[in-house]
User: Which sequence fits this backbone?
């Protein structure tokens, strides 16, 4: 079976690589010539554990190819995935110009029947716009070629994307034609052998499923952060509360860890897009408006603790910062809480030395020389007035406290991910601040 994937970003590259791993002949397409040349050399544009080895393996097996030519790549393919970006417009809505541009290009160049699948996260009714863009181009050419539109949203977690794709908890496909359903069944058959379900539904429901899933997870995060803030005010321990509610099977333990807010390429963008879509239909998403508001304010919580500790005077203070990516096991800094914290500290006249296991290059691209960078987590500490932990990378969990003590000016630690035990930190003589626990 032959498939084409348009877009070599996070979703497109993972999707194409994982399909090739099970024997599908895949061509990943991108208009960025430099990116394609790098991919051919085994240089990936993203960090994802295990992806580089899988890409190289399937390129060597000649099952995975990279190209800048959509026209050549879709010839002989049975299915084409659209996996390009849908960045938020100024009003929060999803910008579909790239998706519809690809759809038009497919219509200009297809020579045989195709299933055209939107893999990008797109609002309800996008499939109809894709269908119209395709048909418009075919009409311009004066040709009649059958095509079928489908929606196949992704449910990949950055840092665990390969595991999520290869062993999915569900595969959602929206389609209104049996021909498309049969092709999608064949394509996904290797992933269903262990009992993982494929759920077929109408296209609007599939498009909504992705937004609803991300909105629910974002809601759990903001809810727990709101509870954490109240716990701190009232003297409760949010970690105990989390255990108490997480043991309820109706709630579960996932996405109820308090912190400094969510970020990344999905939750912020998708929550905004769903709110905007609802407004266009004259409906107010009251819960999601609150989710977004809580998340934006939560990104400032750690900074506020820093400012309060230093009695409002941060000018000339030096801070060590561990963690730049929005979560561990990725170099993604889109909407990362670290960016808000850094911006506010710099505005107050402070200086920052930061370290992240994989996001240093991305941080330098975004922040330039506004902060300093260390090649080792401990080197950030030299002469710093305090340490801030923003991302819960595993290597931060059991540090050498003697090394921290010897390098910091004073034992002051702001833990934005509740990595350490407050009582243990108190015994070690630290002024310790975390989320959802009163430590002073």
Assistant:
């Amino acid at each position: 079976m032959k498939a084409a994937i348009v877009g070599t970003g996070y979703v497109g590259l993972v999707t194409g690589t994982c399909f090739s791993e099970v024997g599908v002949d895949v061509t990943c397409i991108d208009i960025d010539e430099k990116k394609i040349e790098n991919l051919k050399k085994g240089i990936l544009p993203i960090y994802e554990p295990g992806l580089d080895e899988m890409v190289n393996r399937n390129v060597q097996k000649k099952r995975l190819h990279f190209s800048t030519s959509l026209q050549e790549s879709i010839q002989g393919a049975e299915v084409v995935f659209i996996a390009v970006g849908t960045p938020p417009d100024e009003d929060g809505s999803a910008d579909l110009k790239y998706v519809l541009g690809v759809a038009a290009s497919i219509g200009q160049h297809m020579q045989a029947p195709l299933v055209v699948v939107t893999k990008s996260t797109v609002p309800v009714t996008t499939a109809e716009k894709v269908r119209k863009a395709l048909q418009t181009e075919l009409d311009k050419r004066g040709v009649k070629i059958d095509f079928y539109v489908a929606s196949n949203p992704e449910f990949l977690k950055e840092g665990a994307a390969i595991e999520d794709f290869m062993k999915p908890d569900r595969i959602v496909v929206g389609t209104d034609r049996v021909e498309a359903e049969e092709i999608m069944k064949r394509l996904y058959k290797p992933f269903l052998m262990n009992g993982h379900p494929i759920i077929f539904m109408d296209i609007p429901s599939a498009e909504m499923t992705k937004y609803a899933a991300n909105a629910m997870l974002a809601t759990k995060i903001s809810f727990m952060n709101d509870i954490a803030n109240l716990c701190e005010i009232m003297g409760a321990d949010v970690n105990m509360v989390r255990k108490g509610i997480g043991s309820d099977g109706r709630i579960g333990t996932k996405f109820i860890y308090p912190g400094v807010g969510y970020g990344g390429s999905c939750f912020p963008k998708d929550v905004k897009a769903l709110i905007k879509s609802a407004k266009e239909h004259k409906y107010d998403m009251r819960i999601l408006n609150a989710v977004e508001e809580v998340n934006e304010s939560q990104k400032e919580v750690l900074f506020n603790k820093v400012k309060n500790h230093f009695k409002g005077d941060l000018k000339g203070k030096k801070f060590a910062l561990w963690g730049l990516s929005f979560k561990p096991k990725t170099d993604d800094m889109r909407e990362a809480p670290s960016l808000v914290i850094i911006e506010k500290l710099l505005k107050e006249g402070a200086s920052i030395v930061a370290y992240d296991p994989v996001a240093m290059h991305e941080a330098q691209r975004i922040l330039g020389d506004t902060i300093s960078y260390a090649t080792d987590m401990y080197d950030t500490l030299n002469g710093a007035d305090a340490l801030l932990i923003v991302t819960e990378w595993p290597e931060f969990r059991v540090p050498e406290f003697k090394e921290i003590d010897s390098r910091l000016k004073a034992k002051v630690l702001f833990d934005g991910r509740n990595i350490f035990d407050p009582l243990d930190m108190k015994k070690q003589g630290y002024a310790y601040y975390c989320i959802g626990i009163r430590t002073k």
Remarks:
- The chain has 17 helices and 14 strands.
- The first strand starts at residue 2 and ends at 6.
- The mean pLDDT is 95.
